[in-house]
Structure formats: structure tokens, C-alpha cells
Amino acid sequence: MVRILILGGGFGGIRCALDLEKKLVKSRVEFEITLIDRKGYHLFNASIYEIASAYGIKRDLFAIELKKTVCIPYADIFEGKKINFIDAEITDVNLVTKKVTTRGGHNLDYDYLVFGIGGETTDFNIPGIREYAHKFKTLEDALFINQKLDELSVQFTEGNRTEPFSFLICGGGFTGIELAAELGCCTKVIKEKCRLRGRCSNITLFEAGQKILSMVTEKERNIIKKRLTKLGIIIMENSPIEEVGTNFIKLKNGYKLEGDLIIWTAGIKPNRFLSQIVSLSISPSGRIAVDDKLRMTGFENIFAIGDNIEFIDSKTQRSVPAMAYVAVDQGKIAAGNIFELIEKKLPKLKQYKPFYSIWIVSAGGKYAVAHLINGLTVKGFWGWLIKEIVDIRYFMSILPIHKAFKLYWEEFTIFVKND
User: Fold this and answer.
1) What does residue 68 show for φ and ψ, rounded to 5 degrees?
2) What's the CA gap between 311 and 308, in Å, rounded?
3) What is the pLDDT of residues 27-36, one digit of tens each?
4) What's the whole-model pTM score?
5) How many CB atoms lie within 10 A of CB 215?
6) Torsion of CA 271, 101, 67, 167, to 10 degrees
7) Are the CB atoms for 137 and 176 separated by under 8 Å?
8) Which residue among 44, 49, 105, 325 is least crowded, i.e. fewest CB within 10 A of its CB?
9) How large is the average pLDDT for residues 116-140?
10) Top-confidence residue, 112 or 186
11) By the 8 A CB rule, do 222 and 377 touch?
């Protein structure tokens, strides 16, 4: 019996489990694949900005209708598959005895191990961020912002507020831009429903670097900036933050802005759990060091994928960015190489060649900018349509077709209301 443990059910972990199971069921090998995650669902976090801005949805106490648009139960993903799922928090990984321990005290043995536990938000040691800025990475983060929108709109309808509410969004990457743009669309809906004459919101996007989205072309950046400006978003580039308070942001140039809600979308750091594992190969950045086959340095039977690895692209000499489809590709490579090691006496492991030149950024409503193969840029409604196709293709890659379309329809009918 060959035992494979996959730690984390993100984009890479899911893909690794499904691909490996498909390969092994066709072989004569007895196997056991187990995926461990501390939640019972796979979070489609590419759409949590939609959760944050889904105004006017009748909510129950647990926000079930909103949650089911981005929370995909592992029971649905692994239905009919020879994959076990354990809902547990991992407390220890012993690389010598090949054991993983959960918070409940259970020990799980493995022959092959895959790290896919992801990263966490970094605050760059800026004073006040940990205490006062609201992080934007999890479902709970998005639901908090959604609740804040409801509370502010109630203040308008009840006549307790007349001045616009202010959102300060820190981070001019994909996440910050998508959130700012969708909030811009959402607040227009609030304005109409509350019958306000003037503006109901001021949304400011801060970027510490010289430009937002430093990896895109100037032409594409201008398209995105024009769209954000049209939605009423104030863009402040070259604006590094010095301090965050209860209701303000102070920039390094001394400029100070007040806001009703400060949202932090900037930066990812390695999961702090990695530093607790004895003998784990850690790079200077704190991530897991891997070779070109995605094996952890020094171990033939341990692989790592996703946000928790340090993989330097030989073409750019930079770390491969944390993107969903990049993690999916890594999951495929890890699954194929583990299968080779299990099945073949003389395994030929596949080299991981990173590809991340395609991207799509939503810019509020039915508008997106898509950078495709050969530098082709598609914007507006057609860019949005491409994004929708990408989403549904992903759902179909991990779910039965009927469940994939059901999930997409539930997502579409809720999120389109602010468009």
C-alpha cells in the first residue's frame, strides 16, 4: 500500500489529488490518497471580491447563499474518487518518521508527501496594520466587508449619515484593483437604492511602488486606470504607507487620510507553520526550497507546490508569482512525478517549466482586461466573458458537469446584480 498525503486543498492540492488518483486507478498499485485541510471546502478565492461587494442580498445568519458561491465542498469534488479527505488542522510534520500529526492527536503515515498549505498576508512590519487594517484573503474577510457595506447603507436610509463613507484599500495588485473596482460598482447601486443626490462613497487605492500592476504593459495599465477612474476610484501611486491607525492612513510623505474602513490587500508571506517543521528545506525568503521537479531539497519523496514554495524562473531570475493557474500547473507536475516514482523502476521525472504570462483582471461589473497568448489584450465585456469561461472551465475540471454548471449559475445570478 502506497500512502500519499497532500497538505492543503488549494488550487494546487486539489489538482494534484485528482490527477494522481486518475493515474493510479489505472495501475495495479494499491494506494491511499489523503488530503488534509482545516476546512471542509475548497475556497474559490478568485471570486471573494464578489462576496465582499454583493450588496442587497438577503442574508441569513450564516450567509449560506453567499458562501455557497465560492465554497466547494470536498465531498462534491472527491465524489466517486478514491481520495480520502480529513477535516483537521496540522500541528506537526515529522520528516524523519514520515508522520503528520493533527490537532486531535491523530498520526498519519505517508510514503509521499505534498506541501500545498499556501501563504498568509504580510504586513511588512508597518505599525498599526496588524491592529487596525482589515486583511483581505479569506472568506471571513470578504463577509466582514459585505456586512460593513450593509451597515453603512442602513445609516443612509435611516438618515443617520449624509457624508460619503470612505474605503482605503492598500495594495495596487490584482486583488486590490478587483476589490476597488467592484466596490465602485456596488456603491453606485447603493446610491440609487438610497436615493442619494451626491456621492455615497470615496474609494482610494494606494500603491507603494511607482505604478500599479508593475508587471503589465503601460498600455494595459492605462486601460485599467481609465476604468478605475470612471468608477470613481482615486489611485495613489508611489504612496508607501508609514503607519495605520484606527481610522487613518499616514503616508511616508506625511500625508494623512481618514476612512471608515482600511483594507489591506498587499503582499503574501510564507505560512508561519513551515518554520516549525524540523529539517524542512527553507529558502532565505522563508518558503520551501524545491528543485526543478518540485521536490523539496534533500528529499526524494516530498513535493511542494503553490504559494509556499520558492521557485526561481531561470528566464527572469525572479520567483514565480502566486497565481491560481500556476498552482494548478504545479499540482499536475507533482502528481505526474509521484506517479513515476511509484510506478516505474527507472522513473523519468518531468521538469517544471513555469508559465505565467496570461492574466485576467476584473475591473467592476461586466468589464475585465485579459492579457492572452502572444500579447493579445481583450478589454471590456469580451474580457469579462473570457474570465467567465475560465471560471466555468475550472469548475468543470474539478466537479461533475452538472454540479459545475449549477455552481456557476448560483455565482452568476448573485454577483451580476451589481453590474
Assistant:
1) -70, -10
2) 10
3) 989 999 999 9
4) 0.93
5) 15
6) -20
7) no
8) 105
9) 92
10) 112
11) no
pLDDT in tens, 229-238: 999 999 999 9
In the three-class reduction of DSSP (H, G, I as helix; E, B as strand; rest coil), residue 343 is classed as helix
- The residues near 77 (Cβ < 8 Å, ≥ 6 apart) are 14, 18, 42, 398, 399
- Tell me how far apart the alpha carbons of residues 269 and 286 are, in angstroms, rounded to a whole number: 8
Q: Measured between alpha carbons, how far is 324 from 14 in angstroms, rounded to an integer?
A: 11
Whole-number Å distance between alpha carbons of 123 and 10: 22
Alpha-carbon span 133 to 171, nearest angstrom:
12
Question: What is the residue-wise DSSP string for 42-80?
Answer: EE-GGGHHHHHT-TT----TT-HHHHTTTEEEHHHHTTT
As a whole-number percent, the residues of the chain with pLDDT over 70 amount to 98
> What are the distances in angstroms from CA 99 to CA 30, 86, 347?
20, 15, 25
Task: Show Cβ contacts of residue 39 under 8 Å, excluding neighbours closer than 6 positions.
Answer: 9, 87
Neighbour-count burial of 181, counting CB atoms closer than 10 A to its CB (0-12 exposed, 13-18 middle, 19+ buried): buried
In one-letter notation, the amino acid at residue 287 is R
Beta-carbon contacts of 403 under 8 Å, excluding residues fewer than 6 positions away, are 76, 395
Grid coordinates given for 63: 450567509
Average pLDDT over residues 317-342: 94
> What structural domains does the chain harbor?
2-38+88-121+269-343 (3.50.50.60), 129-266+359-418 (3.50.50.100)
Residue whose entry in the numeric block shows the C-alpha cell 507536475:
333
Decide if 307 contacts 13 (C-beta within 8 A). Answer: no
Looking at residue 315, its pLDDT comes to: 85
CA distance 330 to 305: 6
Instruction: Indicate the residue type of 1.
Output: M
Q: What is the DSSP letter of 244?
A: E
Q: CB within 8 A of 30, min separation 6: which ones? A: 1, 2
Looking at 313-400, list the stretches that DSSP marks H as alpha helix, in order from N- to C-terminal side.
324-343, 381-398
- Tell me how far apart the alpha carbons of residues 389 and 288 are, in angstroms, rounded to a whole number: 33
